[in-house]
Structure formats: C-alpha cells, structure tokens
Specification:
Rossmann fold
Length: 284
C-alpha cells in the first residue's frame, strides 16, 4: 500500500475508535478523558464559557489544540469551512457566529465522526434555532467543496495528521474566495522529533508524529499562494496535555530522551493568512 494511504488509514482507524467509544482522547468517558476533561482542555486553549454553551452532547471531544474560531474573526453571513471537523465542535461554534445568513461546513474523512456530528445537528437546531450546518465526508487533501466558495477556512489540530500537507494548503487556497481568510490551530515542531517517536502510531493519532517544523508550515502556505501570513507559536496546550493523564500523551512522553519535555519539541501553532485578491498588493 502507498505510504501516504497507510498513514491515512492509521489515522482513520484511530479516530474511528475515538468516535465510537463515547469518550475522548482515546479512552473511556468514565476515565481520564471524559466530558469534564474535554471542557478543561477547551478552556485551557482559549474557548470562552459563552462559546462552550449550547453545544450538543459529545461535540467537544477534547481534541483541540487551540481556538481557530476566535482567530478567524467570523462575521454574520460568512461561509466557514472546518477541515477535519470530528464531532462538530468548531463547526457548531462557528455556526452561531455566522448566524442564519451564514453557513458552517465540516469535512472529515472518518465515517464514524461524520455520523456522530450529523446526529448532533438536530440538537443544535433545537438549542439555537439555526439551520446552517452540514457535514461532508471527504479527505482534506481533496475537499468536496467548490472553487472560491468559502469566506473562511478553519482547522483545529488536523493538518499535522495529513500525509500530504502541501496538497492540503493548495486545497485551502482553491476553495477560498479572493480575500478569504485562513485561521488554523495546529501542532508544529521546534526541532525534529526523536526517531522512535516519529514511528509511534499513538503519537501520530495524538497529532505529534505528523507535525512539521514551524517554518515548513510557512513555506507550504506561501507556495499555495496564500499571503499576509502570521504564525504564532504557543506552548500552553502541550504543557497542559503533558501534565494530564491522557494515555496517548503518557505514551509520547515515554519516547522522549531523558531530561526532555514535549514543549522542547512541540508547540501549538496559530496560522493566519489570506488569499490575495486578484491584482491586489497583499504580501506575505
């Protein structure tokens, strides 16, 4: 099997298990990573109490490494696309921000995640009165979205999982309208990972093994044609997860050289960018 497809299948299998177990972070909802832990993670990476209210049960699965909806500055009437939408957490938050005249679309390659998110739509409609959400099955390297049809692309701790990241950034540029915005929260590296950690499946599903260096992200986004790039590294998410009881992160810690912490290698990276307007003067 092609190496990229092997990686993609490993990620799909891992996240299918997370979607169907009823918990978060790969463990039981009665264990270390239940709803309370997921809410704590969300608050630690920048979600407000207002953003976390009126969410369908199970939408927040503790899989965030930042708050791209806050970075995006969403406005009423906009169309927003979430890459790797999982249970719909950021899509439902974005849908409230863009309102009844806007639309929030989630794309995920895992059928179990799409099914979970779609089951939550009815509860969201009842809670908010909004009918502006949809979820599409697809790969973020081949988005089921028309050219130049989206105002804002967001993504939360997902692009690092892709085996073909340059293609993801090209797809982001393709679906954005001229002048459209990117607001991504992802994991990135300050230095290359130890070889044993790069080979760890648990590290891959935990978003670590697939991460690339910060400047590699800049290079890929620029090559795709995006401009006015701003990359902001933060260590708060990594430090929170390293201090917690998440079994994936316990496994990752075991692969680090003695005396090293995860934050020596990995940061949560906020990426903001725009698609230039044809003939415009925007520069990266």
């Amino acid at each position: 099997m092609d190496k990229r497809e092997t990686i993609r299948q490993a990620v799909r299998t891992g996240y299918a298990k997370i979607a169907t177990k009823g918990g978060t972070c790969g463990c039981s909802s009665t264990g270390c990573c239940g709803a309370a832990a997921a809410k704590k993670v969300a608050k630690n990476v920048g979600y407000s109490a207002d953003e976390l209210k009126e969410l369908p049960a199970g939408a927040n699965m503790g899989l965030s490494c930042g708050n791209p909806t806050a970075l995006a500055g969403l406005k009423p009437g906009e169309v927003v696309l979430d890459l790797g939408s999982g249970g719909g957490f950021d899509v439902f938050i974005a849908a409230r921000k863009v309102g009844s005249r806007g639309r929030a679309i989630g794309v995920d390659m895992t059928p179990e995640m799409i099914a979970k998110a779609r089951r939550n739509i009815a509860a969201f409609r009842k809670q908010t009165g909004l009918n502006n959400v949809e979820f599409r099955l697809g790969e973020i390297e081949h988005l089921p979205v028309a050219d130049a049809s989206v105002d804002v692309v967001i993504s939360n701790c997902v692009i690092n999982l892709s085996p073909d990241k340059p293609q993801v950034w090209r797809e982001i540029a393709r679906v954005l309208k001229p002048g459209g915005r990117v607001a991504v929260s992802d994991l990135a590296l300050l230095r290359p990972l130890p070889p044993a950690l790069r080979k760890s499946v648990a590290a891959l599903v935990g978003c670590i093994a697939g991460a690339v260096l910060v400047e590699e992200t800049r290079t890929m986004a620029k090559a795709a044609g995006l401009a006015t790039l701003e990359l902001t590294p933060k260590t708060d998410y990594v430090e929170t997860m390293a201090d917690g009881n998440d079994p994936l992160y316990r496994s990752i810690r075991n692969h680090l050289p003695r005396g090293r912490a995860m934050s020596d290698y990995v940061v949560s990276l906020y990426v903001a960018a725009k698609k230039p307007v044809t003939g415009g003067k925007e520069r990266s």
